[in-house]
Amino acid sequence: xxxxxxxxxxxxxxxxxxxxxxxxPRSRLILTEASDYPVSWESRNTPSPxxxxxxxxxxxxxxxxxxxxxxxxxxxxxxxxLKESLVIHAFTNKSGFLECLWSSESSLxxxxxxxxxxxQVLFLSLDDSAVSDALWMREQLDRAAAHSGRxxxxxxxHFCPVPVFALGNWIPNVLYYWGCMGHNxxxxxxxxxxxxxxxxxxxKRLDARYDWLMGRWSAKTYQLADAGDGCKPSPSLxxxxxxxxxxxxxxxxxxxxxxxxxxxxxxxxxxPGNPIQDMNCVDLQCFLPLGIPAAMVHQEVSVAQAxx
Length: 308
Ligand SMILES: *[C@@H]1O[C@H](CO)[C@@H](O)[C@H](O)[C@H]1NC(C)=O
Ligand SMILES: *[C@@H]1O[C@H](CO)[C@@H](O)[C@H](O)[C@H]1NC(C)=O
Ligand SMILES: *[C@@H]1O[C@H](CO)[C@@H](O)[C@H](O)[C@H]1NC(C)=O
Prior knowledge:
Elements: E1 11-19, E2 28-33, E3 64-68, E4 71-75, E5 85-91, H1 96-103, H2 105-114, E6 119-125, H3 130-147, E7 157-159, H4 171-177, E8 187-194, E9 201-207, E10 221-222, E11 224-226, E12 241-245, H5 251-260, E13 265-270, E14 294-298, H6 301-307
Parallel strand pairs: 1-8, 5-6, 6-7, 11-12, 12-13, 13-14
Antiparallel strand pairs: 1-2, 2-10, 3-4, 8-9, 9-14
Helix pairs in contact: 2-3
One 2-acetamido-2-deoxy-beta-D-glucopyranose (NAG) binds next to loops.
């Protein structure tokens, strides 16, 4: 039986609102966490848009072929594929979580070091950018395999340059219509609005959720305030979410000093050209729980300007 690793998502929205643009030197953003709500993917309990269009959980996966960067990949249960496992991973750069996963040396290393024998992995892209996504994923894993001295693993990895929606087999049905559990199914976003803007700015975000950092965004309105690099407590944040740059100190130090400044949360933005990263603690820091939520996003020039 093929093992299908299915990545679906729900949309989680943090709305933000820039106000006070004219009042005082420091303007504020307002963040509101809307409830999590699933978009367009229906579970099998609700009427599916295409009932019976694809396999159900537990069904034997039908044979298929897809083009890859290195030729054709064929899966055929009649030809011995049942003795192997197949993992299908679908990438989208619209997910902060997946961007972080694919940019992280340690996660790539654990994949190349920990992949069992007799397991094939098929990497797909959900987007129109499938060709460049496939090339990029292959490059990331080539490098990780070379660093780990496990180049032989590359024969088990297959990169498809055709977007999922254009595969023309059962895989899109499974990826779009099977449910996904757990918090990394979502396409988490931050939505910023300002009285000065006609349209909101919406960007992907990666929430930092660890044992030492259990804070959650709540369904209320927050303001946002620029707090520089966030490495030192700032006297002036009372209740606002801190907008801080990465760098100059650890993520832990930023969250801790912003909590001390009475921030209600922290949005760390990556410096230009840097990916969204894992915001975990190191060593002893990990034993000190902090109570506010934190997330990582890309730098957004208009937001930074609105905060000046
Ligand atoms: C993913 O998106 C970020 C910006 O959102 C961009 O800098 C990066 O190059 C993209 N990566 C890929 C593989 O498309
Ligand atoms: C890091 O600290 C230096 C010196 O205080 C400052 O000039 C710089 O802007 C800081 N970097 C970031 C990314 O905030
Ligand atoms: C944070 O809030 C507490 C309680 O309201 C207050 O005593 C403290 O002075 C505040 N700290 C800062 C840095 O504003």
